[in-house]
Amino acid sequence: MGRLGLEGLRVLVTASTRGLGRGVAEVLLEEGARVVINGSRRETVEKAVAELRALGEVYGVPADLNSLENVERLVAEAERLLGGLDAGVYVPPPPPPGRVLEVPEEEWLKWSHGLALSPVWFARLLAPRLRGGPRGGLVYVTSIAVREPIPDIALSNVLRISIHGLVRTLAKELGPRGVRVNAVLPGYFLTDRVRSLAEKRARETGKPMEEVIKEMGSQVPLGRIGDPRELGWVVAFLLSPLASYVSGASVPVDGGRLNSVF
Asked: Per-block average pLDDT, block size 10, for the chain (262 residues)?
């Protein structure tokens, strides 16, 4: 414990009862941070807190991220539970798969909140609470789809891009206060979302799901799908004093899968 200098860091991690957010929360707790996790369902949050308690000091706040009122309540409760906040990690809830012409209008409206507006609310609420300095700041989790659109996930391809504009803008606005803002772009990780995408492709192709997952891993130069904790280590680094001069960055964590130079 304590390799990255995060002991006692007070962190709110959204959408963290499972998947990528859960991997981030696990690593932060192992590094000595004090963490509030979040999910939309109370029973899921309580179950995750019970499972994570062996790793460190953790609390849970159920809240849907699609309304300003819920995000306000989440941030205020996290601040109360931890006695303040030093950092926030915004992990958006995963939108369903689908193509542009197939996704219903109401889904575009719903996910414009979770993937475009809610990240802004998160920053506006957390930034005044952050002290700045070599530790902490804000980290946003998006997807490599913002650089190279991925088939069948139109909502992610279109809406997540706005977060990177937000990150670059916030880095300039909050930098004078010493608050760093960065993003990570995960590729394929073994999460419920990837399983859902694999199930859809398996239905369309008639292949077994295990074969589809193996094929997805074969598209990665490292030859496999990542573990959510591997993303967690990168996020933990960005919140640590070791990354004290990194701000406004969008870091791919994808096993080398991206073809783009920038």
From this structure: 89 96 98 97 97 98 94 98 98 88 93 92 97 95 92 91 96 98 94 80 88 88 94 98 97 94 79
Using DSSP's 3-state secondary structure scheme, residue 158 falls into: helix
Cα 150 from Cα 163, distance rounded (Å): 17
Domains of the chain: 10-187+227-251 (3.40.50.720), 190-225 (no CATH)
For residues 197, 67, 101, 103, the Cα torsion angle rounded to the nearest 10 degrees is: 50
The DSSP symbol for 82 reads H
CB atoms under 10 Å from CB of 151, counted, come to 11
Straight-line distance from the first to the last Cα atom of the chain, in angstroms, rounded to the nearest whole number = 34
Residues 6+ apart with CB under 8 A from 236: 4, 6, 24, 27, 28, 31, 33
Q: What is the pLDDT of residue 130?
A: 97
What CA–CA distance (Å, rounded) separates 11 from 87? 5
